[in-house]
Design goal:
Length: 184
Amino acid sequence: MATGKKKFTEKEVNAILLRRAEELSKEIKMELQTGREILSFRLGREWYGLDLTKFNAIVKDFEIISLPYAPEYAKGIFNLKGNIISILDLKKLLELDQTPGEAEGEYICIIFFRDIRLGFLIDEIGEIVSVTKDKITPPLSTIERLKMEYIEGEFKYGNIIITLLEINNVLNSEIKTFEKLEEN
Protein backbone atom coordinates (compact mmCIF):
# COMPACT_ATOMS: atom_id res chain seq x y z
CA MET A 1 0.00 0.00 0.00
CA ALA A 2 1.33 3.39 -0.98
CA THR A 3 0.94 6.17 1.60
CA GLY A 4 1.61 9.00 -0.84
CA LYS A 5 4.59 10.26 1.15
CA LYS A 6 7.84 10.77 -0.68
CA LYS A 7 10.86 9.20 0.93
CA PHE A 8 13.93 11.40 0.99
CA THR A 9 17.47 10.22 0.89
CA GLU A 10 19.85 11.30 3.61
CA LYS A 11 21.52 13.63 1.13
CA GLU A 12 18.17 15.29 0.23
CA VAL A 13 17.24 15.69 3.92
CA ASN A 14 20.60 17.34 4.64
CA ALA A 15 20.15 19.68 1.66
CA ILE A 16 16.65 20.67 2.88
CA LEU A 17 17.92 21.26 6.42
CA LEU A 18 20.85 23.32 5.12
CA ARG A 19 18.52 25.53 3.04
CA ARG A 20 16.23 26.00 6.05
CA ALA A 21 19.19 26.91 8.27
CA GLU A 22 20.35 29.47 5.69
CA GLU A 23 16.85 31.01 5.57
CA LEU A 24 16.67 31.22 9.36
CA SER A 25 20.13 32.78 9.42
CA LYS A 26 19.00 35.46 6.95
CA GLU A 27 16.00 36.30 9.17
CA ILE A 28 18.27 36.75 12.20
CA LYS A 29 20.71 38.90 10.22
CA MET A 30 17.86 41.10 8.97
CA GLU A 31 16.58 41.54 12.54
CA LEU A 32 20.08 42.46 13.75
CA GLN A 33 20.56 44.94 10.90
CA THR A 34 17.20 46.69 11.05
CA GLY A 35 17.34 47.50 14.74
CA ARG A 36 14.79 49.07 17.01
CA GLU A 37 13.75 52.67 17.42
CA ILE A 38 14.37 53.89 20.96
CA LEU A 39 13.25 57.17 22.53
CA SER A 40 16.07 58.38 24.78
CA PHE A 41 15.38 60.52 27.83
CA ARG A 42 17.11 61.69 30.98
CA LEU A 43 16.10 61.04 34.58
CA GLY A 44 18.41 62.93 36.91
CA ARG A 45 21.96 62.34 35.67
CA GLU A 46 21.22 59.06 33.86
CA TRP A 47 19.98 58.40 30.32
CA TYR A 48 17.29 55.82 29.63
CA GLY A 49 15.57 54.45 26.58
CA LEU A 50 12.07 53.27 25.81
CA ASP A 51 11.02 51.22 22.81
CA LEU A 52 9.24 53.60 20.45
CA THR A 53 6.40 51.10 19.92
CA LYS A 54 5.31 51.66 23.54
CA PHE A 55 5.47 55.44 23.26
CA ASN A 56 2.38 57.58 22.61
CA ALA A 57 3.15 61.27 23.20
CA ILE A 58 5.26 63.86 24.99
CA VAL A 59 3.56 66.69 26.88
CA LYS A 60 5.43 69.85 27.93
CA ASP A 61 2.80 72.06 29.58
CA PHE A 62 0.76 70.25 32.19
CA GLU A 63 -0.88 70.59 35.57
CA ILE A 64 -0.88 67.51 37.77
CA ILE A 65 -3.65 67.03 40.31
CA SER A 66 -2.28 65.25 43.39
CA LEU A 67 -4.04 62.20 44.78
CA PRO A 68 -4.27 61.82 48.55
CA TYR A 69 -2.93 58.59 50.09
CA ALA A 70 -1.24 57.53 46.85
CA PRO A 71 2.24 55.99 46.94
CA GLU A 72 5.07 58.53 46.74
CA TYR A 73 5.87 57.65 43.12
CA ALA A 74 2.25 58.24 42.01
CA LYS A 75 2.40 61.97 41.28
CA GLY A 76 -1.29 62.29 40.45
CA ILE A 77 -3.45 62.65 37.36
CA PHE A 78 -3.84 65.11 34.54
CA ASN A 79 -6.33 65.73 31.78
CA LEU A 80 -5.13 65.24 28.22
CA LYS A 81 -7.86 66.22 25.76
CA GLY A 82 -10.58 64.76 27.97
CA ASN A 83 -8.63 61.63 28.94
CA ILE A 84 -7.57 61.30 32.58
CA ILE A 85 -4.02 59.94 32.72
CA SER A 86 -2.17 58.71 35.82
CA ILE A 87 1.30 60.18 36.23
CA LEU A 88 4.20 58.27 37.79
CA ASP A 89 7.56 59.56 38.94
CA LEU A 90 10.04 57.05 37.52
CA LYS A 91 12.88 58.46 39.62
CA LYS A 92 11.03 57.48 42.77
CA LEU A 93 9.70 54.25 41.30
CA LEU A 94 13.19 53.14 40.25
CA GLU A 95 14.65 54.52 43.51
CA LEU A 96 17.10 56.80 41.70
CA ASP A 97 19.15 59.33 43.62
CA GLN A 98 17.53 62.74 43.62
CA THR A 99 19.59 65.86 44.07
CA PRO A 100 18.06 68.29 46.59
CA GLY A 101 16.52 71.22 44.75
CA GLU A 102 16.44 69.26 41.48
CA ALA A 103 13.41 70.19 39.41
CA GLU A 104 10.78 67.51 38.98
CA GLY A 105 10.21 66.26 35.46
CA GLU A 106 9.72 68.91 32.83
CA TYR A 107 7.93 66.57 30.45
CA ILE A 108 5.38 63.81 30.64
CA CYS A 109 5.99 60.80 28.42
CA ILE A 110 2.71 59.04 27.67
CA ILE A 111 2.81 55.31 26.95
CA PHE A 112 0.30 52.57 26.26
CA PHE A 113 0.17 49.90 28.94
CA ARG A 114 -2.38 47.13 28.62
CA ASP A 115 -5.58 48.99 27.70
CA ILE A 116 -4.70 52.28 29.35
CA ARG A 117 -2.42 55.24 28.84
CA LEU A 118 0.01 56.17 31.60
CA GLY A 119 2.39 59.06 31.90
CA PHE A 120 5.69 59.37 33.64
CA LEU A 121 7.80 62.38 34.42
CA ILE A 122 11.10 62.81 32.60
CA ASP A 123 13.67 65.58 32.87
CA GLU A 124 14.85 65.86 29.30
CA ILE A 125 13.98 64.41 25.90
CA GLY A 126 16.90 62.97 23.98
CA GLU A 127 16.86 61.65 20.46
CA ILE A 128 15.18 58.78 18.73
CA VAL A 129 17.98 56.28 18.38
CA SER A 130 18.11 53.21 16.17
CA VAL A 131 19.96 50.37 17.84
CA THR A 132 20.53 46.82 16.66
CA LYS A 133 20.09 43.85 18.99
CA ASP A 134 23.78 43.01 18.90
CA LYS A 135 24.63 46.44 20.38
CA ILE A 136 22.43 45.92 23.46
CA THR A 137 24.37 44.38 26.33
CA PRO A 138 22.92 42.79 29.46
CA PRO A 139 22.50 45.06 32.49
CA LEU A 140 25.44 45.38 34.87
CA SER A 141 25.59 42.71 37.54
CA THR A 142 25.97 45.48 40.14
CA ILE A 143 22.33 46.47 39.67
CA GLU A 144 20.09 45.44 42.54
CA ARG A 145 18.48 42.07 41.77
CA LEU A 146 14.99 43.48 42.33
CA LYS A 147 15.55 46.17 39.69
CA MET A 148 17.20 43.81 37.15
CA GLU A 149 13.80 42.81 35.79
CA TYR A 150 13.13 46.48 34.98
CA ILE A 151 16.11 46.73 32.66
CA GLU A 152 16.34 45.06 29.28
CA GLY A 153 19.94 46.06 28.70
CA GLU A 154 22.26 48.93 27.92
CA PHE A 155 23.87 50.36 24.82
CA LYS A 156 26.35 53.08 24.02
CA TYR A 157 25.25 56.06 21.97
CA GLY A 158 28.00 58.57 21.33
CA ASN A 159 29.58 59.29 24.71
CA ILE A 160 26.64 58.16 26.84
CA ILE A 161 25.30 54.85 28.07
CA ILE A 162 21.55 54.46 27.61
CA THR A 163 19.77 52.02 29.90
CA LEU A 164 16.91 50.37 28.03
CA LEU A 165 13.89 50.06 30.31
CA GLU A 166 11.54 47.11 30.18
CA ILE A 167 8.63 49.38 31.04
CA ASN A 168 6.04 46.57 31.03
CA ASN A 169 7.92 44.82 33.86
CA VAL A 170 8.18 48.07 35.83
CA LEU A 171 4.47 48.75 35.55
CA ASN A 172 3.37 45.12 36.05
CA SER A 173 5.32 45.06 39.30
CA GLU A 174 3.58 48.20 40.53
CA ILE A 175 0.13 46.96 39.52
CA LYS A 176 0.78 43.80 41.59
CA THR A 177 1.66 46.05 44.54
CA PHE A 178 -1.66 47.91 44.16
CA GLU A 179 -3.56 44.62 43.91
CA LYS A 180 -1.97 43.40 47.18
CA LEU A 181 -2.90 46.66 48.89
CA GLU A 182 -6.51 46.31 47.72
CA GLU A 183 -6.69 42.75 49.15
CA ASN A 184 -5.69 43.94 52.65
